[in-house]
Amino acid sequence: MRAYFKIEFLQFMSNKKNIAIYVILLFFSCYYALKTAPEYDPIEKVDEYEIEARYLTREEFLNNVVINNWTHPLTVFAATIYPQWNEYDKKRLDAIRQHNMKEYAESTSKWYSYADEMTLKNGYLYYNPRYYTYENTYATWDGHYAYLYSASRYEGYTEGESDLSINVFEERTALQTLQRLLHSYLPLILIVSCMFFTVDVVLKDRRNTTLLQGLPLSDWRKLLVKGGVSLLGSLLAIIPLSVGLFIIGARNGLGDFELPVPIYLASEKLFSNITIGQYVMQNLLFIVFWFLFFISLILLVSIVIKNEFANLLVGSVFVIAEFMYYARGIGAIRDVHWYPTSYIQTGQIIAGYRNFLYSTDALTFGTGLFVIGLCVCVFLFIMFLISRRRKFRLF
Amino acid sequence: MIELKNIGVQFSGRDILKDVSVMFHPGEIIGLVAPNGTGKSTLMNVIMNYINPNNGKVILNNTLEYTNKKNEVKIHQLVSMMPDQSDLYNQISGKEHLKIYSSMWSSNTKLIDYTIKELGMTSYINKPTGTYSLGMRQRLCFAMQIVSDTQVMLMDEVMNGLDPTHVELISQILVKKKSEGKTIIVASHLLENLEKYADRIFFMKNGELILINELSPGFEQREITTVRVIGMLNNIKENFTKVFPETNVKVLPNDITLIDVRGYDSRELGHIVEFLKENQLIEFSVGKVTLNDLYSMYYQEV
After folding, report:
1. Residue ranges making up the domain that contains B230
2. Can you tell me where the transmembrane regions are (chain A) (predicted)?
3. Which residue among A248, A303, A342, A352 is least packed, with the fewest CB closer than 10 Å?
4. Which residues 92-121 of B have a C-beta within 8 angstroms of A?
5. How far apart are the C-alpha atoms of A350 and B158, rounded to whole Å?
6. Are residues A57 and A7 part of one domain?
7. Residue B52 carries which DSSP code?
8. What is the ipTM of this complex?
9. Whole-angstrom Cα distance, residue A361 to residue A39?
């Protein structure tokens, strides 16, 4: 089997299509690191002037406001909530001017908790205006999520031992960028790459039939080796992608594996932190499961339909399937947690964001691994049965 | 030992192999001769189980049959087929190909260097096969099968694209492998060459395997059976049949006349030679019918 693995791996690495995928990933990675990442503009950023402007405006209001029986209720309300709010802003302002990052983190955490409590409870206040985008009817909830997320994150900075900086606060370091990417399209990019790597892993042998047909190895084992090579090749896609990460690391710092990542606990409607190290490892495990899902699926389609286009088509259906049924809050009325495709955005599943969007608490890391693992077992079992048929031909 | 039992293969209602039953023994080189498209490759594909026969079975060493995938792997440990040169991986070297085949069959790794040397491939074996000429690729394919070192070796057109020196070299290696007890089945169009080293030669026609000894009794024996005459005109032939009415004469499509002299003594042979000389026919030989003659007789009948 080792020798066959060697043949397959040599072919995999010399396959022009696969080389092209690695080159494209390298290009995207560098482009992202040099062009997109520097332009990252977080909503929740460290903006001394914004804090100062808000603080001074409110301070002036508090210094001049006259509260009596004829004062408008909203003015009374503002005069009630601003002193505490401004205290946090003052502490933030002082901390940032003194470069006391720990203090900034602590007061910012409290600021976000307080701001969220005040904003959500009362219909008169708003979250950061950038959440109120066109046609976003869930803007308040998005703001609520983001404020609690930030509160938890800053609390994590306070409790942790990591070196803090503005780049860390704005999640610009290499590891935090990785975390943000895992939360968005990186899992999809890796899964699609895996799909393209696997699409011809069986059918390419039609070009070398006489060389491979008589090898003393069962078709089932050949399929397992091919799957193994695809898995390894897909994992190797991390190498070109990590080039971009090193570029970001050189510019903004690498970050720290101990930095906090807030996880939304849907059942309790609150956040708790895990480390980036844990978050990345869980994502990696999740993505490996997804690789296994797509590899076993495409191997199965390869031996049943024997057409590369069909492989691509079936694989693509699974990649985009979630977009077909996804609707915000639909998890409350539909068991989306039994659909493997609901777990495709691995970072968002681990972070609990998918639960927040679906309004459910069932989309968890554990359930995801179970559902995807079960599908892999089913695909492999069917493949095993087919490959054991006496008249079966691999290609 | 490999046995084919009542093998029948039909494609689109046409019989490609018809009830073929034959046994190939260890230490034997079998020659398969037939025009293209008459079923040589199909027969080999059936032996390898690349094609499932409509009926019949292949039995290896009296026990193993292609009844399940497990047995197929076991049989492929012992039976191999030479790869086609167009199927080589152009990006990797010849030596890598040999190493892969050697490790797939867990054969003696020393065989790799030995075969490279024996086939004179040392100067190019480390280069990617995409840079090889047809002959070099063909030699590599042959070498791959040699390093797999299986008990039964099937070779389809092994001498294709080879110069006479390498044809001779490969023939010698085949004879050596035969002496090691291998069963070698060769399909070839180089009839003179095949005739030299094959122990049994089969023709294929209408889906049947015909041992050439059945077509020409005594073909494999070392005795004078035929006078081969080139360019015998019809009038001379008519004259010949008048002078030697008891003698069988056959004209082949390739302008060769075969005079059957089985059982003739020296005096009778002398008369025939004298007749030929008197008629200015100087291009003739006394010996036995060649494989080329039989092929011509069998496949090019007019």
Report:
1. 226-299
2. 185-203, 223-248, 284-305, 312-333, 362-386
3. A303
4. 92, 96, 100, 103-105
5. 60
6. no
7. -
8. 0.83
9. 34
